[in-house]
Amino acid sequence: MTAPKFCKTKIVATIGPSSWDMDILTQMVEAGVDIARINASFADFDELKRVSQMIRKISQRVSLILDTQGNKIRVAGFETERVLKKGQLITLIPSTKDITNEDQIQITYDNLNKDISRNTIILLDDGNIELKVKEIVDNNIVCTVQNHSILHPHKTVNIPNSFLNFPLLTQKDKQDIEYAVDLGYDFVALSFVQSSKVVKLTRELLGDSDINIISKIENQAGIDNFDDILKYSDGIMIARGDLGVEISFEQIPMIQKQLIYRCRAVGKPVIVATQMLESMRYNIRATRAEVSDVANSVIDGADAIMLSAETSTGKYPIESVETMNTIALSVENILTPQVVYGRTTASLDTDELCKSVFNLTNSLNLKSVLVISQSGKSVQSLSRHRLSIPIYEVTNDFKRVREDNLLRGVKCYYAQSLSDDRDKSIERAVEIVFSYGELDFDDKIAIISGSSIKNKSINSILEIATVKDILGR
């Protein structure tokens, strides 16, 4: 049986009740899952530990993301559905106050009255219910219902175009971040990031840990402060669910394209998330619109595309992964490399070197690029150009294997030790990739490695060679 071919765009799958079974999770990884996401909103420490142990048992290569709950506002104080009628007056009250009549609804943000004013629009249940603020009396918010609807318990509350004075991190978030460190997660995804302050605070909490921080952009403040957030983050997730409620939904496609390009310009990975194959929660086939959505995210240049409910609670988690892989592969097969301009955290010399590799792929019949990596900066700089050929990274830092697993087009290999002698380290790196069947003897490859000259200020060398020449040295 021929092994499946995997797309260059990385696949993130959310793990939940539908994918808890070891056999199903194994098949998902075999179908192309690169990164497993666990949503801390629905998981305690035992769950985070159990899932991480399952993933590590299946594959040491699969990366782990712990996604924090963040400052999510929900309705509270009732356990059966409420019928709301257009024109009806309802009062939102703090969760600390008791409900005294059927027109009151608790919300889990007790100071909302301080952050809004008359005529503010408040959305419930992911935007399905619209309220308009009529008046604010102390900490009670009197609203007019704008459409007939049914409100179920614990549904979400969104206030579009408003900066809310939440604590930077909730107590649960802080605890979950500590769990991520203890359990050896590779990434922490911060929900509802409004400014870089929360990223800096999280960095302090992580201490000496080498966990990377992914900032989720899902509100107007996150968009307004994006460049500053990006500067202090290791990666970005465009979380289109809440973002599509917080801002006008028709803006989402262009915002997605703009944010992806800005991430690529600085060489930081970007994930596109939410409702990519939503119908596959219940159906074995995706809709044509969903196929186009996934394809366009790949064309836009995303490093990774994410499955949420499709794999956590849906009926077809394995098929969802297979579908996403098939769509991405079909698009990547006809895409040409996409050069991008801008400075990464690597040196100017490294950025220019990687741009040269991009140009060489168009003029030479290169089969792949091999990078011998210490810091990972060369790989980030190279990956952002979305080469049509694979990038193989060989490193003696095993943590980097899972961190750079998020980068598009990059496949990482671990070498327990690499010689200080440049020729020997190159030969060892080529041997490793060759042993996995990724290279043939006659393949012409580009090699990026450090110099053997000690104390050299510019420490990257580009070499073009065939595999047989390297292994026959």
How would you characterize the overall build of this protein?
The structure is a single chain. With 473 residues, the chain is an alpha/beta fold. It folds into 3 domains: 226 residues, TIM Barrel, CATH 3.20.20; 86 residues, Beta Barrel (M1 Pyruvate Kinase, Domain 3); 124 residues, Pyruvate Kinase, Chain: A, domain 1 (3-Layer(aba) Sandwich). 34% of the residues lie in helices and 23% in strands. It contains 16 helices and 22 strands. The strands form 4 sheets. The protein has an 8-stranded parallel beta barrel with strand order 1-2-3-13-14-15-16-17, surrounded by 8 helices. Strands 4-7-6-10-9-8-12 form a 7-stranded mixed β-barrel. The protein has a 5-stranded mixed beta sheet with strand order 20-19-18-21-22, sandwiched between helices. The two termini are 35 Å apart. 42% of the residues are buried.
What is the end-to-end distance?
Answer: 35 Å
Secondary-structure class: alpha/beta
- Name of the CATH superfamily of the largest domain: Phosphoenolpyruvate-binding domains
CATH architecture name of the largest domain? Alpha-Beta Barrel
What's the rounded overall pLDDT mean? 92
Question: How large a portion of the residues is in β-strands, by DSSP E?
Answer: 15-25%
Radius of gyration: 24 Å
Largest sheet: 8 strands, parallel, barrel
The poorly predicted ranges are none
- If helices are DSSP runs of H or I spanning 4 or more residues, what is the number of helices? 16
The tally of beta strands, per DSSP, is: 22
CATH class of the largest domain: Alpha Beta
The outline comes out as elongated
CATH topology grouping of the largest domain: TIM Barrel
Q: Give the strand order, joined by hyphens, for the main sheet.
A: 1-2-3-13-14-15-16-17
Q: What is the number of domains?
A: 3
Task: Give the % helix.
Answer: 25-40%
